[in-house]
Amino acid sequence: MTSIPGAATMLAARIHQLGTPEAVQLDTVPRPVPGPGELLVAVHAAAVNFPDTLMIEGRYQTPTPLPFTPGHESAGVVVAIGPQVNGWAVGDRVAVLAPGAFAEYVVASARSAVRVPASIGFADAAATWVCHLTAYHALRSVASVTAGETVLVLGAGGGLGLAAVELAARLGATVVAAASTREKLAAAGSRGATHLVDYATDGLRAGLREAIGPGAVDVVLDPVGGDRAEEALREMRWGGRFITLGYASDAIPRIPLNLVLLKGVTIKGLEVRTFDRHDPVSAARDRAEFIELWTSQRIHPMVGAVFPLEQAREALSYVAERRAVGKTVIEVRAD
């Protein structure tokens, strides 16, 4: 392993007792050491995702032992390399997916690391992977979207929703963005949505019928859940694909199966952390295609808000309260 300069401790935002974002505190903890196949990364920026807020409240799909540092998406500079790692050097700029991102340093599998071109800032790099790669897997491999199809994106103003809008448009789909505020819909329009539906004002089904006609949706991407899921399903074409990606509404929908029968709809789910384990061939293909799109700067995350590490609580609250438009980023070091 390469030697690590500097102090043996670091600052990390941690939670010792499950609760609201107010339970997060800034601790001084030992700096991690990379093991076999791992990199130690000096974090410059980390992105806040909605599942982070669920984890600190103890409401995520799988529990995390206490205490822990939230965050799974970060970007920075490699400062040390563990054994059995090839192809990486100290000083490389990387984006990584690894737990414990809201800290000055994070250990990540070298397999998860992606090179960050000098032309892309760390905040943009940190804001790309969880949402954009989830959306790309969902569109490319799970829903198998083709050019000309009509894709409805629920929660289109959030990080995952905006990523799905941008990528569906890139794949040649006609994108219908549904969100609860004009600000979020404007963001979706700037990312390629053809039709904008304000379901808080117009209602989802009425808005869809006015925009594209009844029963005209080929694919639904739903990171929200709740009552909108069934409404969206009722406006799908026969043989459509409904992809469930999460439950930001805090309500898991209960779908009447007779609708699935009558419409011949396929309902699938995607959990991005395990997708490469269950479908490694598709995951590898998607990742390679996505990296090419990203490094050529044909896609761009929307960073709506930036907080310093000392305000990790505020950043988490901002996302938990659904005030975020696009991605929220914690800046750990100046870019």
TL;DR?
The protein is α/β, with parallel strands linked by helices and 335 residues long. It has helices spanning 50-57, 122-126, 129-142, 159-170, 182-190, 204-212, 227-234, 257-263, 272-278, 280-295, 312-320, and strands at 9-15, 24-30, 38-48, 73-81, 93-97, 105-109, 114-115, 150-154, 174-179, 195-198, 217-222, 236-244, 266-269, 303-308, 327-331.
List keywords for this structure.
335 residues, alpha/beta, Quinone Oxidoreductase, Chain A, domain 1, Rossmann fold, 2 domains, 7-stranded mixed sheet, 11 helices, 15 strands, 27% strand
Describe what you observe in this structure.
The chain is an alpha/beta fold and 335 residues long. The protein has 2 domains: 9-128 and 301-331, Quinone Oxidoreductase, Chain A, domain 1, CATH 3.90.180.10; 131-274, NAD(P)-binding Rossmann-like Domain (Rossmann fold). 31% of the residues lie in helices and 27% in strands. It contains 11 helices and 15 strands. The protein has helices at residues 50-57, 122-126, 129-142, 159-170, 182-190, 204-212, 227-234, 257-263, 272-278, 280-295, 312-320, and strands spanning 9-15, 24-30, 38-48, 73-81, 93-97, 105-109, 114-115, 150-154, 174-179, 195-198, 217-222, 236-244, 266-269, 303-308, 327-331. The strands form 3 sheets. Strands 3, 4, 5, 6, 7, 14 and 15 form a 7-stranded mixed beta sheet that branches. Helix 3 packs across helix 4 (159-170). The protein starts with 8 loop residues before the first strand and ends with a strand. The model has no long low-confidence stretch (mean pLDDT 93).
